[in-house]
Amino acid sequence: MRCVIYNPTARGEKARGFRHEVTALAKDWELMPTTCPGDARTLAAKATRNGYTDIIAAGGDGTLNEVVNGIGDVEGGFERITFGFLPLGTINVFARELGLPLKWQNAWQVASSGKTTNIDVALADFINRDGKSEKRYFVQLAGAGLDARAVELVSWKQKKIIGPLAYIVSGFRALGEKHAIIEVNGKQSARGELVVFGNGRLYGGNFNFFPRASLQDGHFDVAVFPKVSLFQLIKGVIGMYTGSVYRLCNAQQLQAEKVQLSSTGHVPLQLDGDLVGQLPATISIRPKLLRVRVP
């Protein structure tokens, strides 16, 4: 049994025509639309428990994250499920990382019957927005500090109009707030006001933010920025476009299998572009956990 879990509100017109078009392509696939935040995770867990062997997530990076976590909610789920992705979102970082076509119609052949490979998945243990301890997987990226606050401030309308630039605009808005120092502890230690994690190379779109990273190397990359300010953010934006962000911002680069994050102040946390909670948090890698279809 095979299913497509899709977000009917992702990217406006793109999603509105999705069901009609995909029905013609996916004659032997069950279509499962989401109805509210968190629904994709519930649907993926249910499909995994009910013996489905292939699950495609169709939506943005948030839908992708929910489906992966739904598979992980079921014991042995990652061993049983082959995962595919159709990009319907605003930025689609994971699709870019895998080299998928950004038009979902072109990505269908890969997502439904492409070759398979196993990739690393990271696990975050953190304090959720209800103040309780929670564990959640992420496949592409995470951040603590300014970028998570920018995710919190960005509006749906803004993302639809200006795409990835919406996060930069929100980042400038967040600069007026106080930013606590984050302590990063593992085999290597560091401290700064912004910490960004990359399981893959890309961040914020098609920016090669973690040039040493790989989805299959058994660890994640960490960038620690010592200071957050208007001047630093401007240099960071320039650095992202020129490939010199670490040099311009004096950022420290780490590679790790596990790190602990802590702070004496309130520090928000985002996973795969969704605000999930706050520090303290522990981030660890799960090598070759997810079987995914690739070109």
Helix content: 25-40%
**Strand-residue fraction?**
35-45%
Q: Give start-end ranges of low-pLDDT stretches.
A: none
Regarding quaternary structure, how should these chains be classified?
A: single chain
Order of helices and strands: EHHEHEHHEHHEEEHHHEEEEEEHHEEEE
The tally of structural domains comes to 2
Major sheet: 15 strands, mixed
> Number of DSSP strands?
17
| Helix segment tally | 12
Please name the CATH topology of the largest domain. Answer: Tumour Suppressor Smad4
Measured between the Cα atoms of the first and last residue, the distance is: 22 Å
Which CATH class of the largest domain applies here? Mainly Beta
Rounded to an integer, what's the Rg over CA atoms?
18 Å
**What class do helices, strands and sheet pairing give?**
alpha+beta
Q: Given the C-alpha coordinates, what overall shape results?
A: globular
